[in-house]
Design brief:
about 350 residues, mainly beta, Jelly Rolls, 2 domains, nine-stranded antiparallel sheet, seven-stranded antiparallel sheet
Length: about 350
Amino acid sequence: MQESDYIWHKAELYGGEGEARERRLSVDEEDGSSSLVVEFLTDWGRPAGVHHADTEWYVLEGEMNYGGTVFTAGGYLQAPKGVVADWIKFTKGTRVLHFREYGDAGYDAGAERWSTCRDDEQVTTEQTTDRDFDPVPTAGPMPGLVIKYLHIDAVSGFYTRLVRANEGWADHRLAHNPCYEEAYQTSGLMTYNFGTISEGSYFFRPARIKHGHFVSLDGGAVWLLRSDGELTNWYTYNEWVRWGGDAVNYGKAEHWTKSTFDLATRPTWRTEHDLKILNNSVEFQLSQGCKAEPYVPWGFGVDHSAEGFDMSRYTAADNVLTPGPTSELQIFPDAPEPIISSLPVRSKSHGDWDGDGM
């Protein structure tokens, strides 16, 4: 979704003085976990105390003062729940990303450290603009992706990081993961299988939902990305979905079937620049000895749903698979397949979706 599509609410920030409003990017009403954009309409602050949730602040613009240390755009703070946090202040007009995980918005001013906290759980702060991005450990689909790790939980593996996709970085495949991912784009421009993503774009994607066909455009793009466990990418290409049924009181035929291939926009919405970069990703994969085929726009070439299995053999879900494991496939032999998702979770996309990626 695009942040600007969402309405403002009075900010749920207990124990402080001042006025603020928030946009609720995503909320888990069962445990209180929330991902928010907060804008301070006046100077705002609260005394030292204890959060009821693992809490993070990331400054988009303006100023955050934590215990006497001033942070500007790019300033970051993580406070585990139950750990004493120092006093904090935000100046009028400051905009921040605010995350609460595994707890509600409660805050106990003056409280002591919870006995349940691990010894290694401490408040983390950083002015992230003071250090450079690091190359990712492996190149992935192609070189050009760099990161800054901001916080990693030593037990759960939950992490927050900044990710920059340099201009010209792409991935022609789809990925799904064993953990959830959420991200907010702080700058830049990209396209992917659900359309265009620009500054202020956000997604929350549960585990195993596939995503991809990324193309980083002019100037590259930067995301603040969070995940509730160690991230592993399981890749799919030549992807397809086909569905059908027997009509009762509509349409021109009793039995019908369609695939996402049938939904494709023709001519493609992908630009020549997009297609060139996506095929650069293919060429890099081939140079590394990986299995890859030239990328063609969605709805062109072969409808893989028509060749994906032999319908004459279909009696159960486990006997429609076509053989052909590769050495690359054997890296994660027990990994589950993706879960079907037709649109991003909580989506109100500025882009157009035409079945690409499904």
